[in-house]
Amino acid sequence: MAAAIKDFRGQLGPGKYRADMFQSFLVALASDVPAGVAAITNTKTVVSLMRIPDAQAAQALEGAAAELQKQPSVLGKLTFMAERAMPMASSMAKLRTRFPNWSLDTVTALQRAMLENLYRDLCDELPPDTIADSNTLEVLGLSAAEASRLMQEVQEKKAAAEAAALAEQEEQERAQQLQRAMEAASALSPSESRDDDVEDGGGDAAPIGAAGTHEYECTQCGYVLFPAAGRESKFFGDAFKCPQCGAAKSSFVDNGPV
């Protein structure tokens, strides 16, 4: 990078060309490069290699901000990276006041949101309950306490999403089991149904508390079955054992009619 800048600077010559070159760099940086630690660090390197004084850097920032006024999101990226790569020049340029349609409070809130969202993205690449290294936090201007809070938020959001996905999967499995049970019941012929009713009439009372097909759940493994109403003694008799874990019928609880 140093050789490329030296060669280009030699072709342009001294004076205002260096300032123009730096302003073009700033516009391209904000337009084309994602905001992040690498972009901020590279900007610091460019400022050092080009030997840009704060006053000249501030002028270049003002010019770049003027070019980007109709692109507030891009101007926001420029502000975010410049404040961390060139804090003095950014202060001199008063970048947060150069958004034509946004108040200072709005710009401040958006800059904070950009910082927190960027760090949340970094958290996805870190082990749980850790924070980024001290250099990363210093470049971003984020305290260790703030980093820990954001990591906790990310982990809580992940846990909630995983719990929701698991609940949805379990609900789908229960619905499939119910569908299979209803299909099996409907597949019985009328004569079979009458025979079952006769057999059931001389047997034990159906272990249900209300009319209709009930849901029975194994308390050992969570297996669910739906014996057809009126035929519980045939398909869910005293000798029934859980096909999944082998638990006795006494391990099942009646979740009520479905």
TrEMBL record:
GO molecular function, a single term: iron ion binding
Stated name of the protein: Rubredoxin-like domain-containing protein
Species of provenance: Haptolina ericina
Disordered as annotated region, ranges: 168-208
Location of the Rubredoxin-like domain: 213-255
InterPro entries: Rubredoxin-like_dom
Low complexity bias locations: 175-185
